[in-house]
């Protein structure tokens, strides 16, 4: 993915942190990056490009709300079932959190479900420890909402990146254990950042219930108010990268502006939450647009490992010295690319 930038001194500017949204843009041909838009300790860079023609697929959140997709329990912590009952394709993104069932889960890979898909397996990780029964009035056999995404780069790494070689002293923690550990770490960081315990009485280990904390929501709303509009202005915005405390965190790019706009509220919510969890830490200078472009280019360079999913969709994983990239693609072209800084 070659991102165009202008090789001029204008890219080498240094930005300082601000309490209100700021926008700077680097003029460049199609495929350029604009920004950053900043608030407190987060900086958002928007990726502009040409959209794939045609309507965007439904998101998982939309399809669950419309009851055209069902996500079901299987009795296995790390595998669910999903079925598209409707007449439109549905996009499912790695890191989407589904609430309910016997335990709240997050989904491991991005995929595109065709209409009338039938039941297929769906790799997942538990983001709630200990519960294995229905909660309150929720159906223990199904998941009915997906309004949140994983708000932790470390958790995404545990879920998606190839695991390092086990240390000589013994086996490395399982992916699931790493996810649980990162849920607890995220809850601790957020509780410290907002000055209140964000764990829910109904299930203290549940990540989605913690993300519904009123104290956290009040603080997160300030970030969203400052940043949300910037992602809705351009008809050619197809993705974004964000930095926290001056360090590039991760990014998401989509086949079209229409799909990006559908995902943007959930993405921003998760990005703002992650920034809040680190708001009391030291801050560095913001990366320039050129540095962000280099991050994306290097993450997608070189050969990749292709893993077939369902319905002719592949997952292509690439690694650079600084980042991982994960691409969901089919014969019709790529749908989504995710980036994680190491």
List the helices and strands and how they pair.
Layout: E1 33-39, E2 42-48, E3 58-59, H1 60-65, E4 69-76, E5 79-84, E6 90-92, E7 96-100, E8 105-107, E9 111-113, E10 120-126, E11 142-149, H2 153-160, H3 175-194, H4 207-211, H5 214-227, E12 237-244, E13 247-254, H6 257-277, H7 289-299, E14 305-308, E15 314-319, E16 323-330, E17 333-341
Parallel strand pairs: 3-6
Antiparallel strand pairs: 1-2, 2-12, 4-5, 4-11, 5-10, 6-9, 7-8, 7-11, 8-10, 12-13, 13-17, 14-15, 15-16, 16-17
Helix pairs in contact: 2-3, 3-6, 5-6
Question: What do these coordinates show?
Answer:
The protein has a domain at 58-162 and 172-184. The protein is 25% helix and 30% strand. The protein has helices at residues 60-65, 153-160, 175-194, 207-211, 214-227, 257-277, 289-299; strands at 33-39, 42-48, 58-59, 69-76, 79-84, 90-92, 96-100, 105-107, 111-113, 120-126, 142-149, 237-244, 247-254, 305-308, 314-319, 323-330, 333-341. With 342 residues, the chain is of the alpha+beta class. The chain has an 8-stranded antiparallel sheet, with helices on both faces. A 6-stranded antiparallel barrel has the order 4-5-10-8-7-11. It has a 3-stranded mixed sheet with strand order 3-6-9. The chain is built from 7 helices and 17 strands. Helix 2 (153-160) packs antiparallel against helix 3, helix 3 (175-194) crosses helix 6 (257-277) and helix 5 (214-227) crosses helix 6 (257-277). Residues 4-30 have low confidence and may be disordered. A hairpin with a 2-residue loop joins strand 4 and strand 5.
